[in-house]
């Protein structure tokens, strides 16, 4: 697509999105002024609402903690606390966890929450065809699930896992009921403080307070709307009916620092922004080409351009907020001369042409422009492909890409590199051996050493070009309390929100 065609397409898209905003005002009109309702603006529309069957983080942003709950909750500080499990014990060898469930909990349709629902959900999640993004890093590690009584669940692990409780607090581990699990993609039924009401495709998802929630009196909001703002919002003023813009584009954040209506919250997250590389495709299967791409990127310039400097350069698939983080950003300094030499060593004659697929997020569309220039400086020309989120999930995420700029928000998700079928196409027996050794490590010092080795191996193989760990910028209407500042996981705890 030419630059002119892209510009015209964006003008048309912006007009259409703005028209959609106006046409949808009837749904959210008056919410901003109400003290028992909130309107969230989120960048991407989920492709479904079942976080146990698809990888998109946008699903959890809407339903996790609100409609669907897990045994464990991850707090803003990254610590775990009881949710549907009121307590648990771990055996001395670290392989057996016994969870005691909360009594009297029911799903929104009246079905009882019990150990049978937990067993069903976990066995469903570990089916090879489940689509659960935590299948390998969590559910495949469970050797046996037993339910001695309706309020007790016992998990026996194949190996000790120091991250088990954290994994159980992520959205792929929410509990569904056998009678309604098949409806979760379009109309999820859970145990949370809010129930699903409606999904206006292309516009918004509406949740309403569930009066029979176990702690309903503590929930102040009666309704929440998740409005899909997409990247056009950085080009216009903030729509007045939206109360919260999550992970918002930097230029808009700066415009609203002194705005009388809004406050700006800036915190940390587990996100990793990377130029993903398809390791299956020639010549990208040559580590020298991948290393050349890494040397081509001026990370400081990208961070300044996209985030106004609010981010940290990274060199492997770990964020500075994650345990065991090793600073490797200097492994590939910006060095166009070295990059060109590596391409020559790899036998690249003349200019190399690659396709760069960009999803519809501000960081991808803005950052992609700069990466095109930086790659061109070392002899790599790019054909830019602007795709919708659904097209990205059905294309790049399924391995149909060469380069793509994407933000991985899941914490401690290095296990994805053990799967050769994952969209990067990375296949390393040595890396898998490191991860397996970490799983079997029996003391914290050994585990931390192996985490460092895992990060070094990914960096040395230049599997991807990791660029930055962003800070999270949230623009919120003044008077709204209870919002997170830091995001160890991408979730919005509506039950904690209230208007001052």
UniProtKB/TrEMBL annotation:
InterPro entries: Peptide/Ni-bd, SBP_5, SBP_5_dom. GO terms for cellular component: ATP-binding cassette (ABC) transporter complex; outer membrane-bounded periplasmic space. Keywords: Signal. It holds the Pfam family SBP_bac_5. Residues 1-34 form the signal peptide. Residues 81-409 form the Solute-binding protein family domain. Coiled coil: none annotated. GO terms for molecular function: peptide transmembrane transporter activity. GO terms for biological process: peptide transport. It comes from the Bacteria. CDD domains: PBP2_NikA_DppA_OppA_like_6. Gene3D superfamilies: Dipeptide-binding Protein, Domain 1, Dipeptide-binding Protein, Domain 3, Periplasmic binding protein-like II. Belongs to the bacterial solute-binding protein 5 family. This is ABC transporter substrate-binding protein.
């Amino acid at each position: 697509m030419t630059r002119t065609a892209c510009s015209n397409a964006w003008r048309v898209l912006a007009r259409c999105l703005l028209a959609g905003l106006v046409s949808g005002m009837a749904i959210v009109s008056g919410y901003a002024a109400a003290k028992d309702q909130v309107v969230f603006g989120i960048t991407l529309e989920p492709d479904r609402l079942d976080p146990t069957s698809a990888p998109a983080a946008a699903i959890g942003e809407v339903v996790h903690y609100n409609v669907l709950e897990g045994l464990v909750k991850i707090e803003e500080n990254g610590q775990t606390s009881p949710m549907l499990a009121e307590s648990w014990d771990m055996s001395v060898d670290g392989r057996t966890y016994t969870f005691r469930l909360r009594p009297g909990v029911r799903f929104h349709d009246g079905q009882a929450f019990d150990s049978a629902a937990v067993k069903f959900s976990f066995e469903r999640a570990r089916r090879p065809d489940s689509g659960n993004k935590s299948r390998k890093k969590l559910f495949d590690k469970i050797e046996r699930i037993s339910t001695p009584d309706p309020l007790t669940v016992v998990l026996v692990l194949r190996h000790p896992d120091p991250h088990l409780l954290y994994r159980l607090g992520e959205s792929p581990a929410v509990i569904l009921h056998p009678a309604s699990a098949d409806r979760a993609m379009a109309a999820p039924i859970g145990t949370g403080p809010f129930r699903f009401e409606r999904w206006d495709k292309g516009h918004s998802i509406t949740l309403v307070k569930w009066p029979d929630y176990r702690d309903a009196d503590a929930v102040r909001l009666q309704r929440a709307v998740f409005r899909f703002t997409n990247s056009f919002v950085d080009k216009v003023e903030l729509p007045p009916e939206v109360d919260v813009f999550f992970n918002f584009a930097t230029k808009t954040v700066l415009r609203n620092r002194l705005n009388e209506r809004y406050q700006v919250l800036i915190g940390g997250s587990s996100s990793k922004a990377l130029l993903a590389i398809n390791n299956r495709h020639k010549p990208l299967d040559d580590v020298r080409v991948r290393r050349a791409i890494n040397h081509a990127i001026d990370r400081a310039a990208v961070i300044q351009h996209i985030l106004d400097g609010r981010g940290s350069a990274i060199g492997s698939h770990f964020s500075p907020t994650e345990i065991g983080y090793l600073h490797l950003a200097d492994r590939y300094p910006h060095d166009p001369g070295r990059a060109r030499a590596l391409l020559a060593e790899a036998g690249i004659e003349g200019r190399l042409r690659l396709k760069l697929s960009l999803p519809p997020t501000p960081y991808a569309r803005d950052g992609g422009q700069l990466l095109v220039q930086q790659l061109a400086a070392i002899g790599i020309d790019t054909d830019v492909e602007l795709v919708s989120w659904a097209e990205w999930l059905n294309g790049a995420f399924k391995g149909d890409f060469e380069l793509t700029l994407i933000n991985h928000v899941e914490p401690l998700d290095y296990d994805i590199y053990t799967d050769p079928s994952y969209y990067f196409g990375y296949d390393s027996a040595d890396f898998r051996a490191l991860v397996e050794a970490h799983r079997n490590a029996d003391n914290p010092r050994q585990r931390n050493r192996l985490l460092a080795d895992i990060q070094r191996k990914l960096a040395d193989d230049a599997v991807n070009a990791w660029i930055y760990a962003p800070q999270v910028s949230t623009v919120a209407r003044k008077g709204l309390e209870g919002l997170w500042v830091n995001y160890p996981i991408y979730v919005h705890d509506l039950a904690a929100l209230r208007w001052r």
